[in-house]
Design goal:
Layout (H helix, E strand, L loop, with lengths): L12 H41 L5 H5 L2 E5 L8 E5 L5 H6 L1 E10 L9 H14 L3 E5 L2 E7 L9 H11 L9 E13 L5 H24 L2
Antiparallel strand pairs: 1-2, 3-6, 4-5, 5-6
Length: 218
């Protein structure tokens, strides 16, 4: 007696492959959709924490923190990345010590100056010959005189000096402190990105599981 067996459905190699590929595409789509949706929410929460941790953070600084979905390789599950391209943000997340000869601008917190603008100030003062150090309380202070030639360069620092001295108008050649020279700066931990993201992971897991149940559980 001759017996003939015919494979069909998932027992058929081609049928199983088609089912596998279809299921894989569906699962990838669900995971990517959940990551994209929850990633936007995580991005908002991380930016809110940055705003609190860094005080008067500029909008461009907050926008640097982004949620990015990597979903190009079809043979792998999607990946969600939360991070910023700003290189110095990491030390504020972990804390640490910076060593070297550094100039710290002597401005009140509400009159901050960016690194590029501060470099221009120092360069302009040096080029004009209106920059010199004095010793005060054991610290090296970079000074500049209130000269018309550096009027624009010293705008921020003149305002800060008027606030410190309560003078409505600084006399010509009045000495204005610009920066303090330091060799070591200790930065405390101000921002815990990993903790914030980890706190939001259950939301992502629940979103993926919810989509799975809707499709695969009768």
């Amino acid at each position: 007696m001759n017996l003939q067996f015919t494979a069909s459905g998932l027992l058929d190699a081609n049928g199983f492959r088609a089912w596998h590929d279809s299921t894989w595409r569906t699962l990838r789509g669900q995971v990517a959709s959940a990551m994209r949706k929850v990633g936007d929410q995580m991005e908002d929460r991380v930016r809110a924490e940055m705003r609190t941790s860094f005080g008067s953070a500029k909008p461009a600084f907050l926008r640097s923190m982004r949620a990015k979905l990597y979903n190009a390789k079809m043979d792998r599950f999607p990946a969600l990345h939360i991070g910023s391209k700003i290189p110095w943000l990491g030390i504020h997340e972990q804390g640490g010590v910076i060593q070297g000869r550094m100039l710290i601008p002597l401005l009140p917190q509400h009159r901050r100056i960016g690194p590029k603008a501060f470099k221009r100030v120092i360069r302009d003062l040096l080029d004009s010959g209106n920059a010199y150090f004095i010793k005060k309380d054991g610290r090296a202070i970079l000074m500049a005189e209130n000269l018309s030639a550096n009027s624009r360069t010293l705008t921020r620092f003149r305002r800060a000096e008027r606030e410190r001295t309560a003078l409505k108008r600084l006399p010509r050649r009045h000495e204005i402190p610009i920066a303090v020279l330091v060799r070591r700066v200790t930065l405390r931990r101000r921002f815990d990105l990993r903790h914030i993201v980890a706190r939001e992971l259950p939301r992502l897991t629940a979103s993926i599981e919810n989509d799975y149940v809707k499709i695969y559980v009768p």
